[in-house]
Specification:
alpha/beta, Rossmann fold, eight-stranded mixed sheet, 31% helix, 24% strand, binds iron/sulfur cluster, binds magnesium ion
Length: 335
């Protein structure tokens, strides 16, 4: 499999004023030294609670924010080194889909013009060709192309999300970065939209980076999952392995908070205790230690390394120290 995106040691912090009139700042570590790859044709999910750095990661991937350290390579090219015209070329390849389609659809525009706008901006074809392409895109996402002249408010939430996806597909992207794309929808509609994502992936050969707080959604769409906590990736695994056998204590806790259909399994339920700590002054050592039932003294003072468990599986936790083959330094693992 070809590596489409490679993220190496990516970090991003934001200054937060200590007070309204203060010149002093605290630093919020939104993304802290994360590395992962996205392979062509796969769906990689990034999952975690709010404040874990998922949306900052999305902006870094799309070059809407510059990283403080680290790089994002797209087919080998560091996107932060691209000039404006190369970046415009790359923007066609990487498209974003958001949680609230209504906010991203101009209410005063007909949906045909909304979906066709990227074609117009990039001067693709004649007006007639653009209209045909838009009708094709609407059909592709399951919207009747005869609704071309209707307005966003005439559609349901699920339909509006389909319209947003049609727009994202207009320029034939290779990658869709979807940030909570079904979170605003009813559960019954979520399943339909997720099925559409899968169908489009097969039909168009798309690669997805799927960002979500919802493990039950991620389970149905992803091939691999990176679990994020306070700006770090604490576990990376194939979806099957992650759900069958979570390794990191945080992943275990997240899993046990998913409602299980099998009542016999409910006795294993352990709920996550406590709030997510502030990323402004994150806990020392392992950032999960205040909430971790396995935490030791070492966890309070020493950040764990990322341990490679083989077969593409990594976990950042001292419980796996016996697997650690480095010499006191974090391994430069390939995720
Ligand atoms: Fe828990 Fe320690 Fe592992 Fe962190 S390193 S998840 S505190 S056992
Ligand atoms: Mg797939």
């Amino acid at each position: 499999e070809e590596k489409l995106i490679e993220v190496r040691h990516l970090s991003k912090s934001f200054p937060i004023k200590k007070g309204f009139l203060s010149r002093q700042v605290d630093w919020l570590k939104a993304v802290n030294n994360i590395s992962f790859s996205v392979y062509e044709g796969e769906t990689l999910a990034l999952v975690g609670e709010s404040g874990c750095g998922k949306s900052t990661t999305r902006k870094l991937l799309l070059n809407l924010l510059k990283a403080d350290r680290g790089e994002v390579r797209y087919r080998g090219e560091n996107i932060y080194d691209l000039n404006d015209s190369d970046m415009r070329r790359l923007r066609k390849k990487m498209q974003a889909v958001f949680q609230d389609p209504y906010a991203s659809l101009n209410p005063k525009w007909k949906i045909g013009n909304i979906v066709g706008e990227p074609l117009w901006i990039h001067r693709k074809g004649t007006a007639r060709e653009r209209k045909e392409r838009v009708q094709e895109l609407l059909s592709l996402v399951g919207i009747n192309p005869r609704f071309y002249d209707r307005y966003p408010h005439e559609f349901s939430g699920g339909q509006r999300q389909r319209i947003g996806i049609a727009r994202a597909l207009a320029l034939n992207p290779e990658v869709i970065i979807a940030d909570e794309p079904v979170s605003a929808l009813d559960v019954s509609i979520q399943a339909q939209v997720l099925n559409m994502f899968r169908r489009l992936q097969d039909q168009l050969g798309l690669t997805y980076v799927f960002i979500s707080h919802d493990l039950s959604v991620v389970k149905h769409i992803s091939d691999r999952v990176g679990v994020m906590y306070l700006g770090e990736i604490v576990e990376m695994a194939s979806t099957e392995e992650l759900y069958n056998d979570p390794k990191h204590p945080y992943t275990k806790a997240l899993m046990s908070s998913i409602p299980l259909p099998d009542p016999n399994k409910r006795k294993d339920l352990r709920f996550l205790e406590g709030e997510v700590p502030s990323p402004i002054n994150p806990p020392s050592g392992c950032p999960f230690h205040p909430r971790c039932e396995f935490a030791t003294e070492e966890c309070k003072t020493h950040a764990p390394a990322t341990h490679d468990l083989g077969e593409g599986r990594q976990v950042k936790c001292h419980l796996y120290n016996d697997r650690f083959t480095g010499e006191g330094e974090e391994m430069d693992v390939q995720m």
